[in-house]
Design goal:
152 residues; alpha/beta; two-stranded antiparallel ribbon; globular; Flavoprotein-like_sf; RNR_NrdI; Putative NrdI-like protein
């Protein structure tokens, strides 16, 4: 049976809710089993991820406006550390960001920064817990990206 690994961090529960609903959707509609790794539960431990995976993270920033006055990532740094450790970034198909559109230029900024830092694509975004449309849209993007990687 096909599978997909999702590496994520959830602090308020929004990202966890999204990952659970995405996993259920992939199983129901595509018979794809998901393996989820919630970085929050690892307590800063890292290990090699040998299979391709998708990363999902919320945006928590301090200071700045997302344009010219700087910003500091807070609370989600363990995901970046995990992706960097053991060259895990080489297996990342891409990243999905979440956030609150009220924060304007800072919306999903952390995901954009990770994509640039590690050289993988930002696959998409969703606001807060995401909608069923977000689940369907991002599932299709993930599956298309995974298929392209397998063709290479």
């Amino acid at each position: 049976m096909p599978h997909l690994t999702i590496v994520f961090i959830s602090l308020s529960g929004n990202t966890l809710s999204f990952v659970k609903r995405l996993s259920q959707y992939l199983d129901t509609h595509f018979k794809i089993q998901t393996k989820t790794i919630n970085i929050k539960e690892l307590k800063h431990e890292t290990f090699p991820v040998e299979e391709d995976f998708v990363a999902i993270l919320p945006t928590y920033l301090e200071g700045g406006n997302g344009l010219d006055s700087g910003d500091v990532e807070i609370l989600t740094n363990p995901l970046g550390d995990f992706i960097a450790a053991h060259d895990n970034y080489k297996h990342c198909l891409g990243i999905i960001g979440s956030g609150n559109r009220n924060f304007n230029n800072q919306y999903c900024l952390t995901a954009k920064q990770y994509a640039k830092r590690f050289g993988f694509p930002m696959l998409g975004d969703f606001e807060l817990r995401g909608t069923s449309s977000d689940i369907e849209r991002l599932a299709r993007i993930i599956l298309d990206t995974k298929a392209k990687r397998q063709e290479q």
